[in-house]
Amino acid sequence: MSIRVGIVGISGFGGGEAMRLIAGHPSFELVYAAGEGSAGSRLAERFPGAPARFADLVIEKWDPAALPPLDVLFASLPTGTSAEALARVPRNVKIVDIGGDHRYAEGWAYGLADVWPDRIAGRTRIANPGCFPAATLIALAPLLAGKLIAPGHIIVDAKTGISGAGRGGGDSRFGYAESNENLVPYGLLQHTHMPEIAETIERLGGGSAAGLVFTPHLVPMTRGILVTLYARGRATTQECLEAARSFYAGRAFVRVTDRPPQTKWATGSNLAFVSYAADPARDLVIAMGVVDNLGKGAAGQAVQNANLICGLPETAGLDGAPVWP
Amino acid sequence: MSIRVGIVGISGFGGGEAMRLIAGHPSFELVYAAGEGSAGSRLAERFPGAPARFADLVIEKWDPAALPPLDVLFASLPTGTSAEALARVPRNVKIVDIGGDHRYAEGWAYGLADVWPDRIAGRTRIANPGCFPAATLIALAPLLAGKLIAPGHIIVDAKTGISGAGRGGGDSRFGYAESNENLVPYGLLQHTHMPEIAETIERLGGGSAAGLVFTPHLVPMTRGILVTLYARGRATTQECLEAARSFYAGRAFVRVTDRPPQTKWATGSNLAFVSYAADPARDLVIAMGVVDNLGKGAAGQAVQNANLICGLPETAGLDGAPVWP
Amino acid sequence: MSIRVGIVGISGFGGGEAMRLIAGHPSFELVYAAGEGSAGSRLAERFPGAPARFADLVIEKWDPAALPPLDVLFASLPTGTSAEALARVPRNVKIVDIGGDHRYAEGWAYGLADVWPDRIAGRTRIANPGCFPAATLIALAPLLAGKLIAPGHIIVDAKTGISGAGRGGGDSRFGYAESNENLVPYGLLQHTHMPEIAETIERLGGGSAAGLVFTPHLVPMTRGILVTLYARGRATTQECLEAARSFYAGRAFVRVTDRPPQTKWATGSNLAFVSYAADPARDLVIAMGVVDNLGKGAAGQAVQNANLICGLPETAGLDGAPVWP
Amino acid sequence: MSIRVGIVGISGFGGGEAMRLIAGHPSFELVYAAGEGSAGSRLAERFPGAPARFADLVIEKWDPAALPPLDVLFASLPTGTSAEALARVPRNVKIVDIGGDHRYAEGWAYGLADVWPDRIAGRTRIANPGCFPAATLIALAPLLAGKLIAPGHIIVDAKTGISGAGRGGGDSRFGYAESNENLVPYGLLQHTHMPEIAETIERLGGGSAAGLVFTPHLVPMTRGILVTLYARGRATTQECLEAARSFYAGRAFVRVTDRPPQTKWATGSNLAFVSYAADPARDLVIAMGVVDNLGKGAAGQAVQNANLICGLPETAGLDGAPVWP
Q: Which of B177, C160, C167 lies closest to D292 in space, CA to CA?
């Protein structure tokens, strides 16, 4: 049985990765692609390596009133630009919004698929978590659920590859010559992802996350997120690892490792890696989370969510091993 | 039907990529892995993102006398080290040698699969082309077959990502700090791949390749090969492109593009891209070829060859789109 | 004695590098800086690491009618935008034009300083060579002067770091995520630098350069140019090396090496490295040239030219060793 | 007046950078270089871009009993290997030890030159701070001195370029293909730099640093360190910035910036950049420090210390602007 899917935002990195994953998906058929910068082009002009069966699909200008018959729409649009248009998509078209406009919005399920799959199945409007929140919350969930850390004093030192900034019109700050060999902190104490993380910590941990600190950094690499999290708690390293192994038992995409995870372990995959190091004497738990910002942090998680809402196996189209080296 | 495959040289980049491709292959089952550096480890220790069903496979010390029942063995060993051991592998085990010891060796078919699939099907000992020769010969084959260039005066200016140098014991020349932001020509007029290229040019072009010039360069990127080829001929750009489109019509993995190909178009895939620019007035044909050195240049081509000798569809397990960006 | 210098185009990479070199120059004092993107800013806002004595210089909007008293103006403007404005600079202000508008223009000396210092000293309008021509011509000059190669059939396979594309408004093709791990040929058979190279080959070699082939490639690194040159000639490797050592005897910035030069040898310096490999039996001479595209390829050469026209030692302010690694 | 200096450990990154800085120093003359891997070579073989006047210096095997007459010896040897040998260096030879064997050792001054210049001048045995400690302590010193943060609960999330791992025999973990596009935390809760940082915090802050947490990460870039520090305190951002501006008033190498510093601001220089962001309501002060790990983190600081102990201007040979981009 073929499920007809579309992508809006195909010119961007998230939309392009969704295309790649759909290309390898056993049930999804790409019947629609829309994008600002590349409207009017054949898909193969934009993606010379696209599968031959997609090559002649013409990228359209995004218009929710002119959709072909679709089962699922993946939306990967800049935050702040999609709310009105997505509201006009027919109700019978399921939507997975990779962008940031519907996280904790009314009528939308929050698609943290590895933690809350049951809240996603059966829904038709899914807001994919942000890339930083995905990495952060997957690492924190077992600790918060097990009351091993306090929700009130969590520090998130987050590092992302530069594709996390989007293709965005070619801002010269993200140009190769200025980004290469450069490590850049930004958005201190005011990053747009903070409320989403705080809200989810509170839902997971049953207490205020008012003390949350979130410091993102741009790292000179294309893909990958590592979050290093500092929390207060009295658990040992082993207790944290066991809590995580138990929490994610039977879940396909989260791997709990004894040694600190590296971003390259996840590149090109939908995997998340978590690990922990604790020192009860210092009231300290360090949690680490690694994802590919375009995989689990965007298109991979989106396909996982689409699988859940279509009643497919959660891993359909997502079992590719990471690309290494 | 499941085909039992093994990999020797799993610790290296070519062996690791073979593992990744086998993980996504519909008919191959990995039952054996051997490697020098990682013998005794579970596969998941070496490859934290390996598929769960491979995780507990223990990497063995390579011993051709102690193989389990196997249908196909992928060998990815340093050139110069494998001839004797591979000779001891039972005849009923098909071998695809990714290493350099059997190219144009007696009893071995030369596995330039996109050009000569018929010479490969039915054989049991396949020597995979080198990564530079693969990129070079795929770009040249249509021109040589169509007599659009002379075989005698070809200049190959070749550029490779650093994984092409192998993991090789950590030579500090390939260390990050010394390789990054560095472009390094090497092996001038004496590179080990020259005879293989010359031999194949002669078979394709029907004349001496004695004037062949081959200059490799190390480029600060992990994966990817681009060869820029300068030949003498009077064809136009269009005639070259048409010759290539005709030559590769119906072939799955070679794409002929109007614009110059970029290495990133192929990353993580088994695709090859070729393009041409000619100036008859200057007796000049420029040909360009792009591959992923670990894909079409190593493990991708090896799986394609294995498909051919096992009677499977040539594209089985190889239809993943490239990873971009 | 202090020489008052100005930079127009301070926001770009070439202008920024000129500022760095002037900061370390014993005789030059920076009294004027103009730039499009950063007009109105203090220099320290644009360059947080600028010398303290420059920090409060306010970047002005470029206006040739509103210059302060100046001895030398370094112009680093996009090609095609500077001819009219530079014509309005007072005649008593010497100009070194790093941009491309005055190479072989009437009244302008061509500033190939390592080859033709005597044609530069005493002049007041100097057109700095382009970055690709600088690397190419420094490597070719000894061979052409010694008649070791024919001027008519030279192939230039050129590779540049991405700063060579300029800051240029943030074209997303030069964005980090799209440029990293990517090697891109461009401008085949029609690059803007071809006439400049051909003209100079003819002046050096005494014959037509009509057969010149020039193929540039973008390499994922910030700085550095390597040109690999293929010419026809019957000299041996040793004869080429000796010709170059003799040609550049006593010259401070060109180093002739036995082994192939690497781009990182020159990073941050005004050095050029050349080497040769020849095979008389194949009528082949390979020449290699390495420069930092912002050093010898732009601002370094410009300061060298300014030294020559100001009657200073040629190496003033340019004796910094390359940055390694 | 010329001061005769030597370098032991010239083959490593720290020793090589010391050579570069000495090349540009107005008073230091390099008369001795020793190194393990390159003993017997001319300096120009190891460093093709070395100044011509150093080119023919022969690198010797390190032997403290066979030193030529020297005024200052820079030692850049692997930690754990130098104590005995350096003890045998004649007392009249001043030593600046870039390695880790003498930090807080008896008879050695701790060379945190921007903070404690007066404790260094007049001494003859200086232990250069480690690269992580340098960045961390320069950022913390004004806060600790001003009692704006508590010394007991400081979290150091540290990020370093890969040259920080040294050339070290080519460990394949630091190979290009494995390090590129990879971000790697390591040494959690047990890094070798912790005691040095804790000791200095206590000296600066007047209280126990027992709660210190230090988490280093390897970032895919050659040079640069950024430390992001989380401390408890009730100061505002402005109060922190003012404390730092006051603390470093008149100091040449530390720059206090309003916006978060980026590693590339410091590349190739002896500068340190610090900035702060605080939220009194959350009892939080974030401090950031940026250095070039081979500059202020190693050879730059070493030359600064050598200037201090030789009675030279602190900035001699160190006023080069950073290399950008």
A: B177
Q: Least CB-CB distance to B321: which of A49, A252, A325? A: A49
pLDDT in tens, B19-71: 999 999 999 999 999 998 899 999 999 999 999 999 999 999 999 999 999 99
**C33: its two tokens:** 């800086």
Fold adopted by D131-293:
Dihydrodipicolinate Reductase; domain 2 (3.30.360)
Closest alpha carbon within chain A to C223: A177
- How close, in Å, is residue B39 to chain C by CA atoms? 31
Task: Give the chain B residue whose CA is nearest to the CA of C288.
Answer: B185
Report the residue of A13, A25, A258, A324 to disrupt the B interface, i.e. the one with the largest count of B CBs within 10 Å: A324
Residue A166's pLDDT band (boundaries 50, 70, 90)? confident
Domain positions in chain B are 3-129+297-309, 131-293
Note the pTM of the prediction, 2 decimals. Answer: 0.98
**Does domain A3-129+297-309 sit in CATH 3.40.50.720?**
yes
Tokens describing residue A205: 């941990």
Smallest Cβ–Cβ distance between C320 and the set D13, D24, D222 belongs to: D24
User: In the predicted model, is pLDDT for residue D62 greater than 80?
Assistant: yes
Which chain C residue lies closest to A161 (C-alpha atoms)? C177
pLDDT tens, residue by residue, D94-140: 999 999 999 999 999 999 999 999 999 999 999 999 999 999 999 99
Measure A27 CA to nearest chain C CA, in Å.
Answer: 30
Could you tell me which of C280, C279, C243 has the C-alpha nearest to residue C140?
A: C243
Average pLDDT of the residues of chain B: 96
Three-class HEC string of chain C: CCEEEEEECCCCHHHHHHHHHHHCCCCEEEEEEECCCCCCCEHHHHCCCCCHHHCCCECECCCHHHCCCCCEEEECCCCCCCHHHHHCCCCCCEEEECCCCCCCCCCCEECCCCCCHHHCCCCCEEECCCHHHHHHHHHHHHHHHCCCCCCCCCEEEEEECHHHHCCHHHCHHHEHHHHCCCCEECCCCCCCCHHHHHHHHHHHHCCCCCCCEEEEEECCCCCCEEEEEEECCCCCHHHHHHHHHHHCCCCCCEEECCCCCCHHHHCCCCCEEEEEEEEHHHCEEEEEEEECCCHHHHHHHHHHHHHHHHCCCCCCCCCCCCCCC
Mean pLDDT value of segment A42-46: 95
Say which CATH superfamily domain C3-129+297-310 falls into. Answer: NAD(P)-binding Rossmann-like Domain (3.40.50.720)
Counts of helices then strands in chain B (DSSP H, E): 9, 13
Q: Which residues on chain C are in Cβ contact (under 8 Å) with A181?
A: 222
ipTM above 0.90, yes or no: yes
C139: left (phi over 0), alpha (psi -120 to 50) or beta: alpha
Same fold, B3-129+297-309 and B131-293: no
- Among A85, C44, B89, CA closest to D322: C44
Partners of A222 on chain C (C-beta within 8 Å) are: 176-177, 180-181
Percentage of residues in chain A with pLDDT exceeding 90? 93
D221-237 burial code (b ≥16 CB/10 A, e <16): bbbbbbbbbbbbbbbbb
Catalytic residues of C: 131
Residue of D134, D146, D144, D149 lying closest to D14 (CA atoms)? D134
Burial of D190 (0-12, 13-18, 19+ CB in 10 A): exposed
* For residue B168, pLDDT beyond 90: no
Using the CB atoms, write b or e for C13-23: b if 16+ within 10 Å: bbbbbbbbbbb
Binary contact (D176, B176; C-beta < 8 A): yes
Q: What length does chain B have? A: 325
Distance CA A61, CA C210 (A): 47
